[in-house]
Amino acid sequence: MAFRQEPPHTHGSPARSAIVLVNLGTPDAPTRAAVKRYLKQFLSDPRVVEIPRLVWWFILNLIILPLRSGASARKYQTIWTREGSPLKVHTQQQANLLADALEERGHEGVQVRMAMRYGSPSIAQVLDELKAHNCDRIAVLPAYPQYSGTTTASIWDAVFDHYKGVRNVPELRLVKHYHDHDGYIDALHDIVLAHWEAHGRGQKLVMSFHGVPKRTLMLGDPYFCECQKTARLLATRLRLGPDDYVVTFQSRFGKAEWLQPYTAPTVQELARQGVARVDVICPGFTSDCLETLEEISMEVKHDFESAGGKEFHYIPCLNESPTWIVGLAEIAEQHLIGWPTMMSPSQREAERRDADLGRENARRLGA
């Protein structure tokens, strides 16, 4: 087996620590071709779809991709911004703010990067970049608060697959979950309260999590239980009674039974029961994306209003909220324990030289 070429190394140069914030991914553009590439990579992952590979290859390539790529592209077009995909923009901003927060806490030597499990920048690309910056201690931090084999474990697969071809593998720490972390729950609490203070409070708070096949729960995946615990903790912080909120699951795909209750039928039933206003939050998503901005804020809203509901309020994701950046820094800090994260004088000089070189290259490109 041939290993990748190691970057040039000066003996005695200090190793750095790094954090990689990994989100699910997004197409590079809201076009049919870009969405098709993204969906093919995403839906080809055996962690995502547990169907015999040969059977699934025919279903995916001959039915799903030809039929869904165009429809999905049109959905992405409804949420695309001038800066690009909302999920990618928010995740990058979170990474930038996390770096600033860690530096303020004294961890000025920690590199923070954003990566995507599917799409770009890929996990492999970012890990190679960190190796080139002499990062020999890397903590991988998924943007998924609740662990699932369909999401978090897939990140581990990508990390381990990458390092199969690397001679000098860094020390790794993998953040499994933070569904019950105080910083995360506090951030959700503040987001909901801020919305209620600005828009009043609805009759029912719907906590909509991304769905997975029910089969995964029966086979031992803890995702359902972690979603329920997040919901209980948030309800407690908000001082809600059992009748004040409901936990649902969205984004069902295919004909198999998924975790229930499903979000759209639930809000329709609430409307038929006379609930005039619902507030919907998606605690499992730390960044707004297609599933929140289009599926919930547009499609599910339409379902609710079509069933007789009067007011549908979507509460945005954590995104760059100050409380969430604090919580994210606390989570990251817990997984940096024992690693040197302060800069030595030689590291500061190296950082200065890198910054000077970057400015000079930018000047030349602009000339």
UniProtKB/TrEMBL annotation:
Sequence positions that bind Fe(2+): H210, E291
InterPro entries with a match to the protein in the record: Ferrochelatase, Ferrochelatase_C, Ferrochelatase_N
Protein's name in the database: Ferrochelatase
UniProt gene name: hemH
Role played: Catalyzes the ferrous insertion into protoporphyrin IX.
PANTHER family hit by this protein: FERROCHELATASE (PTHR11108), FERROCHELATASE, MITOCHONDRIAL (PTHR11108:SF1)
EC code(s) of this entry: 4.98.1.1
Alphabetical list of NCBIfam families matching this protein: hemH
Originating species: Massilia jejuensis
Family: Belongs to the ferrochelatase family.
UniProt keyword terms in alphabetical order: Cytoplasm, Heme biosynthesis, Iron, Lyase, Metal-binding, Porphyrin biosynthesis
Positions with biased composition (Basic and acidic residues): 348-367
Alphabetized Pfam families for the sequence: Ferrochelatase
Enzyme class: lyase
Reactions it catalyzes: Fe-coproporphyrin III + 2 H(+) = coproporphyrin III + Fe(2+); heme b + 2 H(+) = protoporphyrin IX + Fe(2+)
Region (Disordered): 342-367
